[in-house]
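Narrative summary of target 7.
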Amino acid sequence: MFEVLSQKLGSVFSRLSSKGRLTERDIDEALREVRLALLEADVHFKVVKDFIAQVRERSLEAQVLESLTPAQQVVKIVNEELIAILGEGPSPLAQASHPPTMVMLVGLQGSGKTTTAAKLALHLKSSGQRPLLVAADLRRPAAIEQLVVLGNQLDIPIYREDISSKPVSICAHSLKRAAELACAWVIADTGGRLHIDEAMMEEVARMKRELKPSEVLLVVDAMTGQDAVRAAEEFHAKMGLTGLILTKMDGDARGGAALSIKTVTGVPIKFIGTGEKTDAFETFHPDRLASRILGMGDMLTLVEKAEKTFDAEQAKKLEKKLRHATLDLEDFLLQLEQMQKMGPLSQLVEMIPGLSAIARRGPIEMDEGKIKKIEAIILSMTPEERRNPDIIDGHRRRRIARGSGTTPQDVNQLLNQFRQTQKLVRQMTRGRGLLDMLR
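Modeled conformation, tokenized:
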């Protein structure tokens, strides 16, 4: 989402770094380009004005201009001010003094509200909580069935009633059901409209008054830009939001909503949706997003994804195999599968400091295809061939190629690359320092 903005900011800071000493004129020229980049990214003009003024004031201080690395100091200031407009830190969900805690999701149709309800429930379940999903969106005919399907897929209980029921009574009854099931959280998917109108606003405002939920979260599509900001202002004015969830943050859009919405509305962003899969959902960390925008990576999120994905027992087995240089293609396949669970390769590369520029050159998408091809080739091998690739002769290569929809040359290339990997592992086992570094 922030690809173009990141490129432009990177170009500005690269030119500043090449100057060595900085003057007031250098900073003004750089900030003029930063201002244009932010406005083109659809950031709210008032947010841009205040941001630029704050960065300029801090950048012109003597300790910045006279430092040995003034350009780095300016980047540091920009990073800190970005964090300030995004929010100072993560904003956790408020819990009721007596469970269950009700979370009411509101928003316009098309923002991804129903899917987000399931994602939030899975997020809570993954942290050891027990959630209950409530199908209270009676405006969209398919919403109830969609929530039931998602709940069944994730093994999360769902509360639903006949379509003739009223949303308020459905939610009220769901609290009793949650107590029976010992659910700590109740997540209500309420009705949306294609546009903001008085009837819709009155319905959700009445639900809030009667149900008194601990959280009222607005689900907004980050790709709609300033329309998302205006919708958030309207909802907050009518019913008092406690938080925001930005969806479709993996989309090909300018991203101005994410950079404007907190400052304009005063409502914190609590979660972001980063993909279509139900586990593509993250707690919002302002400092991590600012770091990604400035091309500094996001190692903390990468580590968290790895911890959720990689099995500790399998990691120990792999370490043992590395120590004895007995890595085989089954191990390689397992690592590929686990890496793919962490998300698209392009997203992972962007989280590694210094490599975000690689993700924007284009070939990353091609690399995703290469991983699928490698996976198909290994899956077309017998268990014996995976454990001992040296037995693969010309006849076996042709059979593997036919089974995987590739060519014998593709199979050869994979085997050659794997032999090089084995050779590297053997070299590392001779020096403990390298192996420790790999661990």
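Residues 408-429 form the longest helix (22 residues).
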